[in-house]
Design a protein that fits this description.
Blueprint: H1 5-26, H2 34-45, E1 49-50, H3 51-58, H4 62-74, E2 78-82, E3 90-94, H5 96-116, H6 122-143
Amino acid sequence: MKIEGGYLIGRIKLLSGRVLNRLLQEQGLTEFNGEQGKILYSLWKKDGLSISQLADNTGLAMNSLSNMLKYMEKQGLLQRKACARDKRKKLIFLSEKGRSLEDKTIAINKEMSEIFYKGFRADEIEACEQALYRIAANFTEVDT
């Protein structure tokens, strides 16, 4: 049996990124691209994250993330604030504009899930999700 999980995950990442960017453009969401969407998604789940937390959540390299954050801040999507406990540390918060985009992405997220799991039964989706969580945990274990 030929094992190609890593290759397939990489291919899925590439193709899903292309499809996501196309869907964003089709819906007129030009405020951010798919990579920046990872940042927004993390902040929609939990606002006020450090840059290192965002790097962990998004899988983006620190230098890429820093550049994206600067751009997104200029676009008015987020803002940096000093941490209450450590003034040297900056936390990233959504702006009102950044927060307002979440509702606009619901239909796109739904469509991406439908594409991802097209032809899958509910039990297959559950098994796939469990396997992906295990794979992510395996890589997290050796990355720390």
